[in-house]
Design brief:
By secondary structure, the chain is of the alpha/beta class. 37% of the residues lie in helices and 22% in strands. The chain folds into three domains: 253 residues, Glutamine Phosphoribosylpyrophosphate, subunit 1, domain 1 (4-Layer Sandwich), CATH 3.60.20.10; 185 residues, Glucose-6-phosphate isomerase like protein, domain 1 (Rossmann fold, 3-Layer(aba) Sandwich); 168 residues, Glucose-6-phosphate isomerase like protein, domain 1 (Rossmann fold). Strands 3-2-4-1-10-9-11-15 form an eight-stranded antiparallel sheet, covered by helices on one side. Strands 5-6-7-8-12-13-14 form a seven-stranded antiparallel sheet. Strand 7 and strand 8 form a beta hairpin. Helix 3 crosses helix 4, helix 4 packs across helix 5 and helix 13 packs antiparallel against helix 14. The longest helix has 23 residues. The structure holds 5-amino-5-deoxy-1-O-phosphono-D-mannitol. 5-amino-5-deoxy-1-O-phosphono-D-mannitol (M6R) binds next to helix 9 and helix 16. 5-amino-5-deoxy-1-O-phosphono-D-mannitol binds next to helix 9 and helix 16.
Protein backbone atom coordinates (compact mmCIF):
# COMPACT_ATOMS: atom_id res chain seq x y z
CA UNK A 1 0.00 0.00 0.00
CA UNK A 2 2.51 2.55 -1.26
CA UNK A 3 6.25 2.33 -0.82
CA UNK A 4 8.59 5.02 0.43
CA UNK A 5 12.34 5.30 0.03
CA UNK A 6 14.80 8.04 0.99
CA UNK A 7 18.55 8.51 0.70
CA UNK A 8 20.59 11.31 2.27
CA UNK A 9 24.29 11.16 1.49
CA UNK A 10 27.61 12.91 1.60
CA UNK A 11 29.07 13.36 -1.91
CA UNK A 12 31.19 10.42 -3.04
CA UNK A 13 30.16 8.13 -0.18
CA UNK A 14 27.44 5.97 -1.78
CA UNK A 15 28.02 2.79 -3.86
CA UNK A 16 25.90 4.24 -6.68
CA UNK A 17 24.58 7.67 -7.52
CA UNK A 18 21.96 8.38 -4.77
CA UNK A 19 19.21 8.76 -7.39
CA UNK A 20 20.07 5.31 -8.75
CA UNK A 21 19.78 3.95 -5.20
CA UNK A 22 16.34 5.52 -4.92
CA UNK A 23 15.32 4.08 -8.28
CA UNK A 24 16.53 0.59 -7.33
CA UNK A 25 14.74 0.90 -3.99
CA UNK A 26 11.54 1.86 -5.78
CA UNK A 27 11.77 -1.23 -7.95
CA UNK A 28 12.06 -3.34 -4.79
CA UNK A 29 9.07 -1.57 -3.28
CA UNK A 30 6.91 -1.78 -6.38
CA UNK A 31 5.04 -4.78 -4.97
CA UNK A 32 3.48 -2.38 -2.43
CA UNK A 33 1.69 -0.40 -5.12
CA UNK A 34 2.35 0.35 -8.74
CA UNK A 35 -0.08 2.77 -10.30
CA UNK A 36 2.26 5.75 -10.25
CA UNK A 37 5.62 6.79 -8.86
CA UNK A 38 7.83 9.80 -8.28
CA UNK A 39 11.04 11.18 -6.85
CA UNK A 40 11.94 14.53 -5.24
CA UNK A 41 15.53 15.67 -4.81
CA UNK A 42 17.24 18.70 -3.43
CA UNK A 43 19.26 19.93 -6.41
CA UNK A 44 23.06 20.18 -5.95
CA UNK A 45 22.96 23.99 -5.53
CA UNK A 46 20.56 23.26 -2.60
CA UNK A 47 18.21 26.07 -3.54
CA UNK A 48 15.85 24.13 -5.79
CA UNK A 49 13.73 20.98 -5.61
CA UNK A 50 13.55 18.62 -8.55
CA UNK A 51 10.29 16.66 -8.67
CA UNK A 52 9.70 13.98 -11.30
CA UNK A 53 6.54 11.90 -11.14
CA UNK A 54 3.83 10.28 -13.21
CA UNK A 55 1.29 7.56 -13.72
CA UNK A 56 2.58 4.14 -14.74
CA UNK A 57 5.01 1.40 -13.79
CA UNK A 58 8.40 2.42 -12.42
CA UNK A 59 10.47 1.06 -15.31
CA UNK A 60 8.32 2.88 -17.87
CA UNK A 61 8.54 6.10 -15.86
CA UNK A 62 12.30 5.71 -15.58
CA UNK A 63 12.54 5.64 -19.39
CA UNK A 64 10.31 8.69 -19.67
CA UNK A 65 11.51 10.78 -16.73
CA UNK A 66 14.94 9.41 -15.76
CA UNK A 67 14.55 9.04 -11.98
CA UNK A 68 17.97 7.44 -11.71
CA UNK A 69 19.73 10.32 -13.47
CA UNK A 70 18.77 13.10 -11.04
CA UNK A 71 21.65 14.98 -9.42
CA UNK A 72 21.46 15.51 -5.69
CA UNK A 73 22.24 13.96 -2.32
CA UNK A 74 18.92 14.25 -0.49
CA UNK A 75 16.14 12.36 -2.21
CA UNK A 76 12.81 10.72 -1.50
CA UNK A 77 10.83 8.37 -3.74
CA UNK A 78 7.36 6.88 -3.73
CA UNK A 79 5.44 4.15 -5.48
CA UNK A 80 1.69 4.53 -5.16
CA UNK A 81 -1.40 2.40 -4.61
CA UNK A 82 -4.19 4.94 -4.99
CA UNK A 83 -6.66 5.60 -2.18
CA UNK A 84 -7.62 9.29 -2.40
CA UNK A 85 -7.55 10.51 -5.99
CA UNK A 86 -7.38 8.40 -9.14
CA UNK A 87 -3.98 7.27 -10.41
CA UNK A 88 -2.72 10.11 -12.64
CA UNK A 89 0.36 12.29 -13.03
CA UNK A 90 -0.88 14.99 -10.66
CA UNK A 91 -1.95 12.66 -7.86
CA UNK A 92 1.38 10.82 -7.98
CA UNK A 93 3.69 11.61 -5.04
CA UNK A 94 5.79 13.60 -4.07
CA UNK A 95 3.48 16.53 -3.34
CA UNK A 96 4.80 20.02 -2.79
CA UNK A 97 3.79 23.24 -1.01
CA UNK A 98 2.89 26.51 -2.76
CA UNK A 99 6.48 27.74 -2.80
CA UNK A 100 7.90 24.51 -4.25
CA UNK A 101 10.40 24.28 -1.40
CA UNK A 102 8.89 21.33 0.48
CA UNK A 103 8.17 17.87 -0.95
CA UNK A 104 6.40 15.01 0.82
CA UNK A 105 5.74 11.33 0.18
CA UNK A 106 3.21 9.42 2.26
CA UNK A 107 1.87 5.93 2.79
CA UNK A 108 -1.47 5.74 4.60
CA UNK A 109 -4.56 7.90 4.90
CA UNK A 110 -5.02 11.33 6.45
CA UNK A 111 -8.55 11.08 7.80
CA UNK A 112 -9.08 14.76 8.63
CA UNK A 113 -7.62 16.05 5.36
CA UNK A 114 -10.89 17.70 4.25
CA UNK A 115 -11.07 20.04 7.26
CA UNK A 116 -7.33 20.74 7.05
CA UNK A 117 -7.53 21.45 3.33
CA UNK A 118 -10.50 23.79 3.79
CA UNK A 119 -8.71 25.86 6.39
CA UNK A 120 -5.49 25.95 4.33
CA UNK A 121 -7.40 27.05 1.22
CA UNK A 122 -8.97 29.86 3.27
CA UNK A 123 -5.44 30.95 4.13
CA UNK A 124 -4.60 31.14 0.43
CA UNK A 125 -2.94 27.78 -0.23
CA UNK A 126 -3.41 26.43 -3.73
CA UNK A 127 -3.92 22.67 -4.05
CA UNK A 128 -3.18 20.81 -7.26
CA UNK A 129 -4.09 17.19 -6.54
CA UNK A 130 -7.08 15.27 -5.17
CA UNK A 131 -4.95 13.50 -2.60
CA UNK A 132 -5.11 13.62 1.17
CA UNK A 133 -1.30 13.77 1.24
CA UNK A 134 -1.05 17.24 -0.27
CA UNK A 135 -2.25 18.82 2.97
CA UNK A 136 1.06 17.86 4.61
CA UNK A 137 3.47 20.10 2.62
CA UNK A 138 0.98 22.95 2.84
CA UNK A 139 0.61 22.50 6.60
CA UNK A 140 4.39 22.54 7.04
CA UNK A 141 4.62 25.64 4.85
CA UNK A 142 1.94 27.33 6.95
CA UNK A 143 3.47 26.39 10.32
CA UNK A 144 6.95 27.37 9.13
CA UNK A 145 5.79 30.99 9.01
CA UNK A 146 5.61 30.95 12.82
CA UNK A 147 8.20 28.32 13.75
CA UNK A 148 11.83 28.62 14.72
CA UNK A 149 12.88 25.72 12.48
CA UNK A 150 11.58 23.51 9.72
CA UNK A 151 11.59 20.57 12.12
CA UNK A 152 9.32 22.46 14.51
CA UNK A 153 6.95 23.20 11.63
CA UNK A 154 7.02 19.53 10.62
CA UNK A 155 6.30 18.44 14.19
CA UNK A 156 3.36 20.87 14.44
CA UNK A 157 2.00 19.56 11.14
CA UNK A 158 2.22 15.95 12.30
CA UNK A 159 0.45 16.85 15.55
CA UNK A 160 -2.66 18.03 13.71
CA UNK A 161 -3.05 15.22 11.21
CA UNK A 162 -5.19 12.20 12.07
CA UNK A 163 -5.04 8.81 10.43
CA UNK A 164 -2.32 6.42 9.43
CA UNK A 165 0.95 7.45 7.92
CA UNK A 166 4.56 6.86 7.10
CA UNK A 167 5.84 10.20 5.83
CA UNK A 168 9.13 11.39 4.40
CA UNK A 169 9.83 15.02 3.60
CA UNK A 170 12.70 16.94 1.99
CA UNK A 171 13.11 20.68 1.61
CA UNK A 172 15.50 23.29 0.29
CA UNK A 173 15.07 25.10 3.62
CA UNK A 174 17.18 22.40 5.34
CA UNK A 175 18.70 20.58 2.38
CA UNK A 176 20.72 17.81 4.06
CA UNK A 177 17.87 16.20 6.01
CA UNK A 178 15.02 13.81 5.42
CA UNK A 179 12.23 14.34 7.93
CA UNK A 180 9.97 11.43 8.81
CA UNK A 181 6.96 10.46 10.90
CA UNK A 182 5.20 7.17 11.46
CA UNK A 183 1.85 5.93 12.71
CA UNK A 184 0.31 2.59 11.68
CA UNK A 185 2.28 2.35 8.41
CA UNK A 186 5.72 0.73 8.36
CA UNK A 187 8.98 2.66 8.21
CA UNK A 188 12.61 1.63 8.77
CA UNK A 189 15.84 3.60 8.91
CA UNK A 190 18.98 2.09 7.36
CA UNK A 191 22.35 3.11 8.77
CA UNK A 192 25.42 3.19 6.52
CA UNK A 193 28.76 4.97 6.31
CA UNK A 194 28.46 8.42 4.81
CA UNK A 195 24.78 7.99 4.06
CA UNK A 196 21.53 6.96 5.71
CA UNK A 197 18.32 5.59 4.30
CA UNK A 198 14.62 5.46 5.01
CA UNK A 199 12.20 2.92 3.57
CA UNK A 200 8.86 1.19 3.96
CA UNK A 201 10.57 -2.15 4.34
CA UNK A 202 13.94 -3.78 4.81
CA UNK A 203 14.33 -5.47 1.37
CA UNK A 204 14.34 -2.03 -0.25
CA UNK A 205 17.59 -1.12 1.49
CA UNK A 206 19.19 -4.52 2.05
CA UNK A 207 21.55 -3.91 -0.84
CA UNK A 208 23.17 -1.04 1.08
CA UNK A 209 23.01 -1.95 4.74
CA UNK A 210 21.94 -4.55 7.27
CA UNK A 211 21.91 -2.11 10.19
CA UNK A 212 18.35 -0.95 10.66
CA UNK A 213 16.13 0.81 13.16
CA UNK A 214 12.42 0.01 13.03
CA UNK A 215 10.56 3.28 13.55
CA UNK A 216 7.75 2.92 16.10
CA UNK A 217 4.27 4.39 16.07
CA UNK A 218 4.12 7.99 17.21
CA UNK A 219 7.77 8.65 16.40
CA UNK A 220 9.04 11.51 14.29
CA UNK A 221 12.52 12.79 13.48
CA UNK A 222 15.04 13.26 10.74
CA UNK A 223 18.11 11.64 9.24
CA UNK A 224 21.20 13.31 7.82
CA UNK A 225 24.12 11.49 6.11
CA UNK A 226 25.71 10.77 9.48
CA UNK A 227 23.13 11.38 12.21
CA UNK A 228 19.72 10.17 13.27
CA UNK A 229 17.27 12.03 15.47
CA UNK A 230 14.12 10.32 16.72
CA UNK A 231 11.56 11.59 19.21
CA UNK A 232 8.26 10.33 20.52
CA UNK A 233 5.73 12.94 19.54
CA UNK A 234 5.00 14.93 22.69
CA UNK A 235 7.44 12.96 24.85
CA UNK A 236 10.94 13.99 23.75
CA UNK A 237 14.01 12.27 22.26
CA UNK A 238 14.32 8.51 21.98
CA UNK A 239 17.54 6.57 22.71
CA UNK A 240 17.52 4.77 19.37
CA UNK A 241 21.06 3.40 19.65
CA UNK A 242 19.79 0.38 21.63
CA UNK A 243 17.30 -0.39 18.89
CA UNK A 244 19.77 -0.91 16.04
CA UNK A 245 19.26 -4.40 14.61
CA UNK A 246 21.47 -6.36 12.27
CA UNK A 247 19.19 -8.02 9.75
CA UNK A 248 20.07 -11.57 8.79
CA UNK A 249 18.12 -11.69 5.52
CA UNK A 250 20.42 -12.11 2.54
CA UNK A 251 20.27 -9.89 -0.50
CA UNK A 252 19.42 -12.96 -2.52
CA UNK A 253 16.23 -13.24 -0.44
CA UNK A 254 15.16 -9.87 -1.73
CA UNK A 255 15.99 -10.40 -5.42
CA UNK A 256 14.58 -12.66 -8.12
CA UNK A 257 17.84 -14.61 -8.27
CA UNK A 258 17.45 -15.47 -11.96
CA UNK A 259 13.75 -16.47 -11.81
CA UNK A 260 11.32 -14.65 -14.08
CA UNK A 261 9.09 -13.72 -11.13
CA UNK A 262 9.34 -13.49 -7.37
CA UNK A 263 6.28 -15.71 -7.08
CA UNK A 264 7.88 -18.77 -8.66
CA UNK A 265 11.07 -18.18 -6.72
CA UNK A 266 9.07 -18.00 -3.50
CA UNK A 267 7.04 -21.13 -4.34
CA UNK A 268 10.23 -23.09 -4.96
CA UNK A 269 11.83 -21.64 -1.83
CA UNK A 270 9.23 -23.27 0.42
CA UNK A 271 11.36 -26.23 1.53
CA UNK A 272 14.05 -23.81 2.72
CA UNK A 273 11.52 -21.49 4.37
CA UNK A 274 9.92 -24.44 6.17
CA UNK A 275 13.32 -25.69 7.29
CA UNK A 276 14.23 -22.30 8.78
CA UNK A 277 10.82 -21.96 10.41
CA UNK A 278 11.01 -25.43 11.92
CA UNK A 279 14.50 -24.74 13.24
CA UNK A 280 13.32 -21.45 14.76
CA UNK A 281 10.19 -22.95 16.34
CA UNK A 282 11.98 -25.82 17.95
CA UNK A 283 14.12 -23.36 19.88
CA UNK A 284 11.65 -20.54 20.47
CA UNK A 285 10.51 -20.05 24.10
CA UNK A 286 7.64 -17.94 22.72
CA UNK A 287 5.70 -21.11 21.88
CA UNK A 288 5.71 -22.17 25.53
CA UNK A 289 4.66 -18.67 26.62
CA UNK A 290 1.84 -18.75 24.08
CA UNK A 291 0.67 -22.16 25.31
CA UNK A 292 0.60 -20.79 28.86
CA UNK A 293 -1.76 -18.03 27.73
CA UNK A 294 -3.91 -20.51 25.82
CA UNK A 295 -4.22 -22.79 28.84
CA UNK A 296 -5.50 -19.92 30.95
CA UNK A 297 -7.91 -18.73 28.27
CA UNK A 298 -11.65 -18.79 28.71
CA UNK A 299 -12.10 -18.44 24.93
CA UNK A 300 -9.61 -18.50 22.05
CA UNK A 301 -10.16 -16.35 19.00
CA UNK A 302 -7.98 -16.22 15.90
CA UNK A 303 -8.03 -13.51 13.27
CA UNK A 304 -6.30 -12.48 10.04
CA UNK A 305 -6.98 -11.41 6.45
CA UNK A 306 -6.65 -13.23 3.13
CA UNK A 307 -4.13 -16.03 3.06
CA UNK A 308 -3.28 -15.57 6.73
CA UNK A 309 -6.97 -16.12 7.46
CA UNK A 310 -6.82 -19.48 5.69
CA UNK A 311 -3.88 -20.46 7.90
CA UNK A 312 -5.92 -19.31 10.91
CA UNK A 313 -8.88 -21.41 9.87
CA UNK A 314 -6.56 -24.38 9.58
CA UNK A 315 -5.38 -23.73 13.14
CA UNK A 316 -8.91 -23.56 14.47
CA UNK A 317 -9.80 -26.92 12.88
CA UNK A 318 -6.57 -28.44 14.12
CA UNK A 319 -7.02 -27.28 17.70
CA UNK A 320 -10.54 -28.61 17.87
CA UNK A 321 -9.33 -31.91 16.36
CA UNK A 322 -6.24 -32.34 18.54
CA UNK A 323 -7.15 -30.59 21.77
CA UNK A 324 -10.94 -30.76 21.58
CA UNK A 325 -11.02 -27.04 22.24
CA UNK A 326 -13.10 -24.70 20.11
CA UNK A 327 -11.35 -21.73 18.53
CA UNK A 328 -13.36 -18.84 17.10
CA UNK A 329 -11.89 -17.74 13.75
CA UNK A 330 -12.95 -14.44 12.21
CA UNK A 331 -11.95 -12.21 9.31
CA UNK A 332 -10.04 -9.28 10.77
CA UNK A 333 -12.12 -6.54 9.16
CA UNK A 334 -15.18 -7.92 11.02
CA UNK A 335 -13.48 -7.46 14.37
CA UNK A 336 -16.06 -5.19 15.98
CA UNK A 337 -18.70 -7.89 16.35
CA UNK A 338 -16.21 -10.30 17.87
CA UNK A 339 -14.43 -7.81 20.10
CA UNK A 340 -17.80 -7.03 21.61
CA UNK A 341 -17.87 -10.49 23.15
CA UNK A 342 -14.25 -10.52 24.38
CA UNK A 343 -13.03 -10.08 27.93
CA UNK A 344 -9.96 -10.24 30.13
CA UNK A 345 -9.71 -14.03 30.24
CA UNK A 346 -9.78 -14.39 26.46
CA UNK A 347 -6.89 -14.81 24.04
CA UNK A 348 -6.72 -13.49 20.49
CA UNK A 349 -4.20 -14.95 18.04
CA UNK A 350 -3.40 -12.50 15.24
CA UNK A 351 -1.76 -13.97 12.14
CA UNK A 352 -0.12 -11.60 9.69
CA UNK A 353 2.92 -12.20 7.51
CA UNK A 354 3.67 -8.48 7.24
CA UNK A 355 2.63 -7.68 10.80
CA UNK A 356 1.20 -4.43 9.45
CA UNK A 357 -2.22 -5.27 7.97
CA UNK A 358 -4.45 -2.57 9.38
CA UNK A 359 -7.59 -4.72 9.73
CA UNK A 360 -5.64 -7.22 11.83
CA UNK A 361 -4.01 -4.44 13.84
CA UNK A 362 -7.40 -2.85 14.57
CA UNK A 363 -8.76 -6.23 15.70
CA UNK A 364 -5.74 -6.60 17.99
CA UNK A 365 -6.29 -3.16 19.50
CA UNK A 366 -10.02 -3.71 19.98
CA UNK A 367 -9.36 -6.94 21.88
CA UNK A 368 -6.54 -5.36 23.82
CA UNK A 369 -8.95 -2.61 24.95
CA UNK A 370 -11.10 -5.35 26.42
CA UNK A 371 -8.09 -6.73 28.27
CA UNK A 372 -7.71 -9.86 26.16
CA UNK A 373 -4.23 -11.35 25.80
CA UNK A 374 -2.67 -11.29 22.33
CA UNK A 375 -0.46 -13.83 20.55
CA UNK A 376 1.02 -12.75 17.21
CA UNK A 377 2.21 -15.01 14.41
CA UNK A 378 4.21 -12.97 11.92
CA UNK A 379 7.05 -13.10 9.41
CA UNK A 380 8.43 -9.63 10.08
CA UNK A 381 10.34 -9.10 13.28
CA UNK A 382 9.37 -6.00 15.21
CA UNK A 383 6.48 -5.12 12.92
CA UNK A 384 3.44 -3.49 14.51
CA UNK A 385 1.38 -6.61 15.30
CA UNK A 386 4.10 -8.58 17.12
CA UNK A 387 5.20 -5.40 18.85
CA UNK A 388 1.75 -4.81 20.30
CA UNK A 389 1.26 -8.43 21.36
CA UNK A 390 1.99 -10.25 24.61
CA UNK A 391 3.79 -13.05 22.79
CA UNK A 392 5.16 -13.13 19.24
CA UNK A 393 5.87 -16.32 17.33
CA UNK A 394 7.81 -15.81 14.10
CA UNK A 395 7.83 -17.72 10.86
CA UNK A 396 11.18 -17.53 9.11
CA UNK A 397 10.17 -17.45 5.49
CA UNK A 398 12.44 -14.52 4.61
CA UNK A 399 11.04 -11.54 2.71
CA UNK A 400 8.08 -12.32 0.50
CA UNK A 401 7.90 -9.89 -2.41
CA UNK A 402 5.30 -11.46 -4.71
CA UNK A 403 1.91 -9.99 -3.88
CA UNK A 404 0.42 -13.48 -3.71
CA UNK A 405 1.38 -15.10 -0.42
CA UNK A 406 3.01 -18.50 -0.94
CA UNK A 407 5.87 -19.47 1.36
CA UNK A 408 4.35 -17.45 4.17
CA UNK A 409 1.18 -19.57 4.06
CA UNK A 410 2.97 -22.90 4.39
CA UNK A 411 5.27 -21.57 7.11
CA UNK A 412 2.31 -20.08 8.99
CA UNK A 413 0.53 -23.44 8.96
CA UNK A 414 3.72 -25.08 10.21
CA UNK A 415 4.03 -22.62 13.10
CA UNK A 416 0.34 -22.87 13.95
CA UNK A 417 0.46 -26.68 13.83
CA UNK A 418 3.38 -26.59 16.24
CA UNK A 419 1.36 -24.36 18.55
CA UNK A 420 -1.74 -26.57 18.31
CA UNK A 421 0.29 -29.71 19.09
CA UNK A 422 2.05 -28.09 22.06
CA UNK A 423 -1.31 -26.88 23.38
CA UNK A 424 -3.01 -30.27 22.92
CA UNK A 425 -0.13 -31.95 24.72
CA UNK A 426 -0.82 -29.81 27.78
CA UNK A 427 -4.59 -30.23 27.74
CA UNK A 428 -4.28 -34.01 27.50
CA UNK A 429 -5.71 -34.07 23.99
CA UNK A 430 -2.42 -35.67 22.96
CA UNK A 431 -0.09 -37.78 25.06
CA UNK A 432 3.54 -36.72 25.23
CA UNK A 433 4.52 -39.46 22.82
CA UNK A 434 1.71 -38.63 20.36
CA UNK A 435 2.80 -35.00 20.44
CA UNK A 436 6.42 -36.07 19.89
CA UNK A 437 5.35 -38.19 16.90
CA UNK A 438 3.47 -35.29 15.35
CA UNK A 439 6.44 -32.99 15.83
CA UNK A 440 8.60 -35.51 14.01
CA UNK A 441 6.10 -35.41 11.16
CA UNK A 442 6.33 -31.62 11.11
CA UNK A 443 10.09 -31.98 10.86
CA UNK A 444 9.48 -33.70 7.52
CA UNK A 445 7.62 -30.68 6.16
CA UNK A 446 10.57 -29.28 4.12
CA UNK A 447 11.21 -32.62 2.41
CA UNK A 448 7.54 -33.32 1.75
CA UNK A 449 7.08 -29.84 0.27
CA UNK A 450 10.06 -30.51 -1.99
CA UNK A 451 8.60 -33.85 -3.17
CA UNK A 452 5.23 -32.25 -3.79
CA UNK A 453 6.76 -29.45 -5.88
CA UNK A 454 8.97 -31.83 -7.85
CA UNK A 455 6.11 -34.25 -8.54
CA UNK A 456 3.59 -31.67 -9.68
CA UNK A 457 5.33 -28.71 -11.30
CA UNK A 458 5.32 -29.96 -14.87
CA UNK A 459 1.72 -31.29 -14.59
CA UNK A 460 0.56 -27.99 -13.15
CA UNK A 461 2.23 -26.23 -16.07
CA UNK A 462 0.51 -28.48 -18.63
CA UNK A 463 -2.82 -28.10 -16.89
CA UNK A 464 -2.49 -24.32 -16.90
CA UNK A 465 -2.91 -24.31 -20.72
CA UNK A 466 -6.46 -25.62 -20.26
CA UNK A 467 -7.18 -23.69 -17.08
CA UNK A 468 -6.30 -20.45 -18.85
CA UNK A 469 -9.35 -20.98 -21.12
CA UNK A 470 -11.76 -21.15 -18.14
CA UNK A 471 -13.69 -18.42 -16.39
CA UNK A 472 -15.15 -20.28 -13.38
CA UNK A 473 -13.91 -23.00 -11.04
CA UNK A 474 -14.72 -24.60 -7.71
CA UNK A 475 -12.08 -25.55 -5.16
CA UNK A 476 -13.57 -28.08 -2.77
CA UNK A 477 -12.59 -30.24 0.16
CA UNK A 478 -13.81 -31.35 3.54
CA UNK A 479 -12.58 -31.01 7.11
CA UNK A 480 -8.95 -30.03 7.47
CA UNK A 481 -8.67 -29.71 3.66
CA UNK A 482 -11.14 -26.82 3.40
CA UNK A 483 -8.77 -23.95 4.32
CA UNK A 484 -6.21 -25.43 1.91
CA UNK A 485 -8.78 -25.48 -0.89
CA UNK A 486 -9.70 -21.88 -0.03
CA UNK A 487 -6.07 -20.89 -0.35
CA UNK A 488 -5.82 -22.63 -3.75
CA UNK A 489 -8.86 -20.71 -4.95
CA UNK A 490 -7.52 -17.37 -3.73
CA UNK A 491 -4.29 -17.90 -5.68
CA UNK A 492 -6.12 -18.54 -8.93
CA UNK A 493 -8.44 -15.57 -8.41
CA UNK A 494 -5.87 -13.01 -7.46
CA UNK A 495 -3.23 -13.65 -10.10
CA UNK A 496 -4.99 -15.43 -13.00
CA UNK A 497 -8.26 -13.47 -12.66
CA UNK A 498 -10.38 -16.63 -12.90
CA UNK A 499 -13.38 -16.83 -10.64
CA UNK A 500 -12.62 -19.56 -8.11
CA UNK A 501 -15.11 -20.35 -5.38
CA UNK A 502 -14.25 -22.50 -2.41
CA UNK A 503 -16.52 -24.08 0.18
CA UNK A 504 -16.86 -27.39 2.07
CA UNK A 505 -17.81 -29.93 -0.58
CA UNK A 506 -20.95 -31.06 1.25
CA UNK A 507 -22.51 -27.69 0.40
CA UNK A 508 -22.57 -28.35 -3.37
CA UNK A 509 -26.06 -29.81 -3.36
CA UNK A 510 -27.39 -26.81 -1.44
CA UNK A 511 -26.90 -24.49 -4.37
CA UNK A 512 -23.49 -24.21 -6.08
CA UNK A 513 -23.88 -27.40 -8.14
CA UNK A 514 -26.47 -25.59 -10.25
CA UNK A 515 -23.60 -23.81 -12.00
CA UNK A 516 -21.80 -27.00 -13.01
CA UNK A 517 -21.94 -27.96 -16.68
CA UNK A 518 -19.71 -30.10 -18.93
CA UNK A 519 -16.01 -29.14 -18.75
CA UNK A 520 -16.46 -27.12 -15.53
CA UNK A 521 -13.18 -27.46 -13.54
CA UNK A 522 -13.50 -28.64 -9.95
CA UNK A 523 -10.27 -28.86 -7.98
CA UNK A 524 -10.54 -31.25 -5.03
CA UNK A 525 -8.06 -31.04 -2.15
CA UNK A 526 -7.97 -34.62 -0.89
CA UNK A 527 -6.21 -35.05 2.46
CA UNK A 528 -4.64 -38.37 3.39
CA UNK A 529 -7.49 -39.35 5.66
CA UNK A 530 -9.64 -42.31 4.70
CA UNK A 531 -12.74 -41.02 6.42
CA UNK A 532 -12.56 -37.73 4.52
CA UNK A 533 -11.70 -39.50 1.28
CA UNK A 534 -14.85 -41.63 1.61
CA UNK A 535 -16.93 -38.53 2.20
CA UNK A 536 -15.35 -36.82 -0.80
CA UNK A 537 -16.20 -39.76 -3.05
CA UNK A 538 -19.88 -38.78 -3.08
CA UNK A 539 -19.00 -35.13 -3.74
CA UNK A 540 -16.76 -36.06 -6.65
CA UNK A 541 -19.38 -38.36 -8.14
CA UNK A 542 -22.10 -35.72 -8.02
CA UNK A 543 -19.82 -33.29 -9.86
CA UNK A 544 -18.77 -35.90 -12.41
CA UNK A 545 -22.42 -36.74 -13.12
CA UNK A 546 -22.82 -33.12 -14.32
CA UNK A 547 -19.82 -33.33 -16.63
CA UNK A 548 -17.32 -31.51 -14.38
CA UNK A 549 -13.62 -32.14 -14.93
CA UNK A 550 -12.20 -33.42 -11.63
CA UNK A 551 -8.72 -32.24 -10.74
CA UNK A 552 -7.53 -34.03 -7.63
CA UNK A 553 -4.71 -32.76 -5.47
CA UNK A 554 -4.20 -36.07 -3.73
CA UNK A 555 -1.53 -38.33 -2.30
CA UNK A 556 -0.14 -41.27 -4.26
CA UNK A 557 -2.20 -43.92 -2.46
CA UNK A 558 -5.56 -42.21 -2.47
CA UNK A 559 -8.58 -44.49 -2.71
CA UNK A 560 -10.07 -41.95 -5.11
CA UNK A 561 -7.49 -42.29 -7.88
CA UNK A 562 -9.94 -43.81 -10.40
CA UNK A 563 -12.29 -40.85 -9.91
CA UNK A 564 -9.79 -38.20 -10.96
CA UNK A 565 -9.57 -36.82 -14.49
CA UNK A 566 -6.35 -35.03 -13.62
CA UNK A 567 -4.19 -35.96 -10.66
CA UNK A 568 -1.65 -33.66 -9.05
CA UNK A 569 0.17 -36.29 -7.01
CA UNK A 570 1.36 -35.27 -3.57
CA UNK A 571 3.50 -37.46 -1.30
CA UNK A 572 1.70 -39.90 1.00
CA UNK A 573 2.23 -38.51 4.45
CA UNK A 574 0.26 -37.63 7.59
CA UNK A 575 -2.83 -35.47 7.01
CA UNK A 576 -1.43 -32.81 9.36
CA UNK A 577 0.91 -31.82 6.51
CA UNK A 578 -1.98 -31.27 4.07
CA UNK A 579 -1.34 -27.48 3.74
CA UNK A 580 2.34 -28.16 3.12
CA UNK A 581 1.92 -30.91 0.53
CA UNK A 582 -1.29 -29.80 -1.19
CA UNK A 583 -0.89 -26.02 -1.46
CA UNK A 584 2.26 -25.87 -3.65
CA UNK A 585 0.62 -27.68 -6.63
CA UNK A 586 -2.25 -25.18 -6.52
CA UNK A 587 0.17 -22.26 -6.23
CA UNK A 588 1.99 -23.61 -9.29
CA UNK A 589 -1.25 -24.04 -11.20
CA UNK A 590 -2.24 -20.44 -10.47
CA UNK A 591 1.23 -19.16 -11.32
CA UNK A 592 1.49 -20.91 -14.70
CA UNK A 593 -2.11 -20.00 -15.57
CA UNK A 594 -1.39 -16.32 -14.93
CA UNK A 595 1.79 -16.50 -17.00
CA UNK A 596 -0.07 -18.30 -19.79
CA UNK A 597 -2.66 -15.51 -19.82
CA UNK A 598 0.09 -12.93 -20.07
CA UNK A 599 -0.35 -11.45 -16.58
CA UNK A 600 2.39 -10.42 -14.21
CA UNK A 601 1.86 -12.71 -11.19
CA UNK A 602 4.01 -10.50 -8.97
CA UNK A 603 1.82 -7.47 -9.48
CA UNK A 604 -1.83 -8.46 -9.78
CA UNK A 605 -4.19 -5.65 -10.70
CA UNK A 606 -5.89 -3.66 -7.92
CA UNK A 607 -3.83 -5.33 -5.20
CA UNK A 608 -0.91 -4.41 -2.98
CA UNK A 609 1.20 -6.64 -0.79
CA UNK A 610 0.36 -5.04 2.53
CA UNK A 611 -2.99 -3.42 3.13
CA UNK A 612 -2.47 -0.59 5.56
CA UNK A 613 -5.79 1.17 4.94
CA UNK A 614 -9.10 0.05 6.42
O1 LIG B 1 0.49 -9.45 5.73
P1 LIG B 1 -0.77 -10.19 6.02
O2 LIG B 1 -0.56 -11.65 6.20
O3 LIG B 1 -1.52 -9.61 7.18
O4 LIG B 1 -1.67 -10.01 4.73
C1 LIG B 1 -2.98 -10.48 4.69
C2 LIG B 1 -3.54 -10.44 3.29
O5 LIG B 1 -3.59 -9.14 2.80
C3 LIG B 1 -2.72 -11.32 2.32
O6 LIG B 1 -2.61 -12.63 2.78
C4 LIG B 1 -3.38 -11.32 0.93
O7 LIG B 1 -4.60 -11.98 0.99
C5 LIG B 1 -2.47 -11.96 -0.11
N1 LIG B 1 -2.49 -11.18 -1.31
C6 LIG B 1 -2.91 -13.31 -0.53
O8 LIG B 1 -2.09 -13.87 -1.50
Amino acid sequence: MCGIIGVVALPGRTPYRPSLMVYRGLLRLEYRGYDSAGVAAVAPGRDKLIVLKGKGKIEELEKKLGFSQIDGFTLIGHTRWATHGVPNDINAHPHTDCTGRIAVVHNGIIQNYRELKESLVKKGHVFRSDTDTEVIPHLVEEFYKTSSSLYEAFRRAISVIEGSYAIAMVSTIEPGKIFFAKKDSPLVIGLADGFNLLASDIPAILEYTRRVIIVHDGEIGYITPDTVYIEKLGAGPVAWEKRVRIVDWSLEDATKGGYPHFMIKEILEQPRALQDTFFGLSRDPAVEEAVKLLLEARRIYITAAGTSFHASLYYSLLTSTLAGIPVIPFIASEYKIYANTAGHRDVLIVVSQSGETIDSLMALRAFRERDAKIIAVSNVIDSAIPRESDVAIYTRAGPEIGVAATKTFTTQTLALSWLAISHAEKTGGLTESEAGELRKILEEAPRQAMVSITNTESYAKQLSEWMATKTNTYYLSRGIGVPVAMEGALKLKEIAYIHAESYPAGESKHGPIALVEPEFPVVFTIPNDEELEKLLLGNIKEMKARGAVIIGVAHEKTILSDQLDIWLKTPTTHWILTPITHTPPMQLLAYYTAVKKGYDPDKPRNLAKTVTVE
